[in-house]
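Fresh eyes needed here. Kindly weigh in on this sequence plus structure tokens:
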Amino acid sequence: MPKILVPVAGSPHDEAVIRYVLRQALRGTPPEIHLLNVQTPLRWHVARFIPRRERHVFYGEQAREALGPCRQRLDRAGLAYTAHTAVGDSAACITEFAQRLRCDRILMGTARKDSLVRLVEDCVVNRVLERTTVPVEVIASTAVSNWERYGIPAAVGALLAAALVD
């Protein structure tokens, strides 16, 4: 039985990954599914005023909220899964969990984006790809926005033209 890690951020992209997992499960042996939500730690200048226990409760509530729709969808489909939560850098936690759980692959959802946008954007998917030795499948969910398709390349082109004129 394949073992997969599905990072869940509470975004619309999670739905595309869960649909993919459900389709794969219908085609063959259901995988061993591990859902992972990683919470970004509060900044130190905020965290120092909040007791550790309250921060822990806050992270737990945020994780439950993010994992909720995916858990409901898997429950309705009758697929077993294990939910995990972590606090820290998303890419580091995803990589660590995948190795520790000995996952066969990581399934990550993302928006369809222009190559230029991916080049300048700090994306968790890119950072996971850089860090892990576990195969990563990227499931695209939404189309490229008009701003990403036309606006960003035009802005970059204008900046390059301005740099050449000087």
